[in-house]
Design brief:
By secondary structure, the chain is mainly β. It has a domain of 58 residues. Helix content is 12%, strand content 39%. Strands 4-5-8-9 form a four-stranded antiparallel sheet, with no helix packed on it. It comes from Strabomantis sulcatus. Pfam families: BACK, Kelch_1. This is Kelch repeat and BTB (POZ) domain containing 2. Keywords: Kelch repeat.
């Protein structure tokens, strides 16, 4: 496919007459929708070949979002809130095609999972909680009933071709929103939020995809809530508040690294260009537990700190120029080799509007990459 694209792009004008012949040797449904649009626009209108006529007739099918049949980079949102309170959906969003690809929801109304994508584009989710049937709690507030939940150690792999979640061997510990990372051929499940006391929040386990089994490894030095983890140079970095720990899988050793200038939780992080970017979140006081948005005084930007793994030091980068009342809990992603953040730009009580901002490392500046249409999400 890549060779055919290069051949056509070399001289589109003179070679477009051979497009139908080229297409007859390709699996069209495996091309990204962006490429499909570009190629189909160049189809010769008077070409009567069977291939071209077949493409025209099946055009609606080609442009219908399909799962597991695209090469576009996507943002995976496991718990996308719907308009109905308490309702969620699982989607992939393609910034290139500006379309949503619907995924099957996790089984048993599973919520608050950890998620990771392997280098082979396999999606895994772990832990979380499921609602208990016929069990509700009002927390001593008449008229306000809330479902009660059971924490689980479930582990699933997503079969993109069948659009279904396949159960794998469960984790050894129950966890809510564990940090999942892929490192040196294994999946690591780290900590979790307020489950099983300090011991469970410190536990770390490793999953072997070939053997389908979990093994406990060296625990975290401290019990974390709201932690986030990334991988740089085959080492795992776990961050929460103003703390950073580095795990070296081959030696099984944890090391405490330099502390950040600010103490934040519920932040997002991404490894990019050999550095770690720690973005947004809520300011956290370890003693009082008070949490405030990690923004400037006018609440119009979101804080960013960068960790240099070679120098073992943190420094402050340009803030994300978010709008007033934007959600400080952004999501960092790398799209087409650019560091980006996915952000909600409206107050939680207002209709949701989203955007993607992109970072320019040379200028140390963020700019709006894409405003996401309301009809998309």
């Amino acid at each position: 496919r890549e060779a055919a694209m290069s051949w056509l792009d070399y001289n589109t004008v003179s070679r477009s007459q051979y497009l139908s012949t080229v297409l007859s040797h390709l699996r069209i449904d495996a091309l990204s929708e962006v490429i499909q649009r570009e190629w189909f626009q160049g189809l010769p209108p008077n070409d009567k070949s069977v291939v071209v006529q077949g493409l025209y007739k099946s055009m609606p099918r080609f442009f219908k979002p399909r799962l597991g049949m695209t090469k576009e980079e996507m943002i995976i949102i496991v718990e996308a809130a719907l308009e109905n309170p308490g309702s969620y959906s699982t989607i992939c969003y393609s910034p290139q095609a500006e379309k949503v690809y619907k995924l099957c929801n996790p089984p048993s109304e599973l919520l608050k999972v950890g998620a990771v994508v392997s280098p082979d584009n396999d999606i895994y989710i772990a832990g979380g909680q499921v609602p208990l049937k016929n069990a509700k709690s009002n927390h001593n507030k008449p008229g306000k009933f809330q479902p009660t939940f059971r924490t689980v150690n479930s582990f699933y792999w997503f079969d993109a071709q069948q659009n279904t979640w396949i159960p794998k061997t469960p984790m050894l510990c129950v966890r809510v929103k564990p940090s999942l990372v892929w490192c040196d051929g294994y999946i690591y499940a780290i900590g979790g939020d307020s489950v099983g006391g300090e011991l469970n929040r410190r536990t770390v386990e490793r999953y072997d995809c070939e053997k389908d089994e979990w093994t406990l490894v060296s625990p975290l030095p401290s019990a974390f809530q709201w932690s986030v983890a990334v991988v740089v140079h085959d080492c795992i970095y776990v961050m929460a508040y103003n703390l950073t720990y580095c795990f070296i899988p081959r030696s099984g050793i944890w090391a405490e690294m330099a502390k950040r200038q600010s103490s934040r939780c519920l932040a997002s992080a991404a490894a990019f260009d050999g550095k770690i970017f720690y973005l947004g979140g809520l300011q956290a006081d370890n003693n009082s537990g008070v949490r405030l948005p990690s923004s400037t005084l006018d609440d119009s930007s979101i804080a960013v700190e960068v960790y240099d793994v070679h120098k073992n030091e943190w420094y402050v980068a340009a803030n994300i120029p978010a709008k007033l009342f934007a959600d400080p809990c952004v999501r960092a992603v790398v799209i087409s080799n650019f560091l980006c953040v996915f952000i909600r730009e409206t107050h939680m009580n207002e209709k949701a509007k989203y955007a993607i901002y992109q970072y320019d490392m040379d200028l140390d500046q963020w700019f709006l990459r894409q405003q996401i249409s309301e009809r998309v999400l």
